[in-house]
Design brief:
Structural class: mainly beta
Distance between the termini: 52 Å
Number of helices: 0
Strand content: over 45%
Number of strands: 27
Low-confidence stretches: none
Radius of gyration: 17 Å
Shape: elongated
Oligomer: single chain
Length: 203
């Protein structure tokens, strides 16, 4: 059990794990270069911004989550009891899987320098900005979905959005052809060649 009323900074030559509740009021900075970070205690609370560096990174946070310069050479998984926002650059080589409020709260990852191998998002209003091509894995948004991508936009899983869908890919292609995808409300798409498969009526 760890309680920090200020900041928590850990630099580890090995993996970082938890075996009890961790409560941090200020910023949390964890560096495990070349190693994993696994913070999976469901009652842990990280109130301040989190700066994380490792290979595969997995975090459960029992409050809203603020990401600040997350670098994962593998996958990144976040289960947040509250909304998810970012104040820095998120660089994920593998898949970024983010769940906010069991899919009922907002996810806003809007730094223009963000890069993700692929993204899998579960939230209400979802806003993503990526400085590279974007691959959407299984994604569910109960509100609006907004994506601004510096490259082509593709999918490798079903994307289901209840609200409006806005995708801007500049001069690049948008190809969302998963048969199980559903875009219920209006779609605003900007790209070169655009191909959409929609299991719902299309507006």
């Amino acid at each position: 059990t760890t309680v920090a009323t200020g900041t928590l900074t850990v630099t580890s030559k090995g993996a970082i794990t938890d075996s009890g509740q961790v409560t941090v009021t200020g910023t949390t900075t964890l560096t495990a270069t070349g190693k994993t970070i696994t913070l999976d205690e469901s009652t842990s609370t990280y109130t301040g911004a989190m700066a994380l560096t490792g290979t595969d990174i997995s975090v459960i946070n029992n409050t809203a989550t603020v990401l600040d310069d997350v670098t994962a050479k593998g996958a990144f998984t976040l289960e947040s009891a509250g909304a998810v926002t970012t104040t820095g650059i998120d660089t994920i080589v593998g898949r970024a899987t983010v769940t906010a409020g069991n899919g009922t709260l907002d996810i806003t990852l809007d730094d223009a320098a963000n890069k993700f191998g692929s993204v899998s998002m579960f939230g209400m209003d979802i806003t993503l900005v990526e400085a590279d091509a974007t691959n959407l894995y299984t994604t569910e948004g109960s509100g609006d979905f907004s994506l601004t991508s510096a490259g082509a936009v593709t999918d490798s899983g079903d994307v289901n959005i209840t609200g409006t869908t806005t995708i801007a890919a500049g001069a690049n292609a948008i190809t969302l052809d998963s048969a199980g995808s559903g875009f219920i409300d209006a779609m605003t798409l900007t790209g070169s060649n655009i191909a959409i498969t929609n299991s719902e009526a299309t507006d």
